Amino acid sequence: MTSPHELSALDQYRLLQRRELGVVELTRHYLDRIESRNALFGAFFTVTPELALQRARHVEDAVTRSTRLWGLPFADKDLWRRQGVRTTFGSRAFADGVPETTDEIPRVLDEAGGVSLGKTATPEFGMTSHSETVIAPPARNPWNLELSPGGSSGGAAAAVAAGMLPFAPGSDGGGSIRIPASACGVVGLKPSRGRVPGLSGIDALGGLPVAGPIARSVVDAAFLLDGMIGRRGSVVDDHFALRAPAQDDGDFLGFAIRGEGRFQIGVSTASPWSASHDIVVDPEITAALNDTVGLLSDLGHGIDEASLEPMPGYGSAFTAVWQAGAAQIRLGAGDIGAGDGGGTGEQHVDGGLEPLTSWLRRRGRELTAVQLADALAELSRVERAVIAGFAGFDAVLTPTLAQLPRPIGWYDAVDAERNFSQQVEYSPFTSVVNVSGLPAITLPVAMSESGLPIGMQLIGRPGGEGTLLSIGRQLERRLRWEHRHPPIWT
After folding, report:
1. Of 77, 119, 427, 436, which is the active-site residue?
2. Which of 91, 152, 431, 470 is the catalytic position?
3. Catalytic site residue 119?
4. Is 153 a catalytic residue?
5. Eight-state DSSP code of residue 395
6. Cα-atom radius of gyration of the chain, to the nearest Å?
7. Which domains does the chain have, with CATH numbers?
8. Does the pTM of the predicted model rise above 0.90?
9. Per residue in 338-373, pLDDT tens?
10. pLDDT tens digits for 404-416?
11. Rounded to an integer, what distance in angstroms lies between the CA atom of residue 108 and that of residue 72?
12. Helix (H) or strand (E) holding 115
């Protein structure tokens, strides 16, 4: 008999709906897989078996079966609080923190009928493109345990790739869904700014971070995206959320299942980081890009080169805004940012942070109002230039990453500026999508000669998730990557 984790999330949902599979039974199945595998991968910081089984029994007995994700397991990224569950933000400053409230994304997924199994690994405050932190062993890539799954949603992507979850929510402020999804050989979707009300980006500095799905297939990613958006009357105030055309409930699953349409697709390997960093794309990634272009052409899509104007100010502006975001990290009563206007505890509490976070936070607090305003104005110019430059295309294809998955310990743990540069060189194509507020999906189109996943990124028009899902599903039908698993799968 086929084990539940071998099925798609949508097929598991259908079995639950037909009562051929029980919610408690499915929850136990995934808890067993986590127990037998998490020591290898470090995908979870915290597993909550008792709470998960209690929740599963409640869903089975008391939650309306028609809810979008009824009975399906997921896990909270450990940047999101869940009442009564240890939440660390990947930092020793909160290593023993147990919040009294629950953040919006977990609440929406609960309302959709999901069952949380715990908290997935993330770097300190989600600031990096890897998932290594001092509070726990590093998260590892299921395709090669010596390599990183990427970050910051690295634990979520590793758990999905290893079959410890059917899918997982993540967050993405500069590539944090797409980077680990590409490194782990799964699908990752960064929605448009404003699409997911629980983490829309609209109220964030620079409009960068949004929440989105990680899954083994395009269909399952769309399925989870619908659950993350929620319905009218959700626990979140969704008045500012974008809506799918003529579908007020944001039903993207239909786009993914149908996978229809012929589109005009641009192709680009340009990065706005090139003005400040030496960006070199691995030859195997370039070959995968060319193969994907050929396949898209065979599918009937129009293909042309996409170009953007030079953006010499991008690197310094994005870095400044990223630093300003870190400046908002508040650690304790003595923290200069905690509301007391000063205090003597700044040096003490900052000493608990890892070098990169400390550097980002310190530099962010040194910025003047004029410097921050100038950086935000520059990113606004970039946003307009990107949207205008890509306006002639339904989607634009780029590599997701410039390099194959990096080894554990590859990032400089002492020199923070070098660490930041390494992240830029690894993932130079992702952050500009956050700056422009556009949707983007990474698709696991190829494998390297050494057996590592290679992802390609499709960038859509504003609100264009449906087009990305349609194109992605067409590629998925040809390449069948949802049936490709790492050796550790069994």
Report:
1. 77
2. 152
3. no
4. no
5. E
6. 21
7. 4-309+381-489 (3.90.1300.10)
8. yes
9. 333 333 233 334 658 999 999 999 999 999 999 999
10. 999 999 999 999 9
11. 14
12. strand 115-120
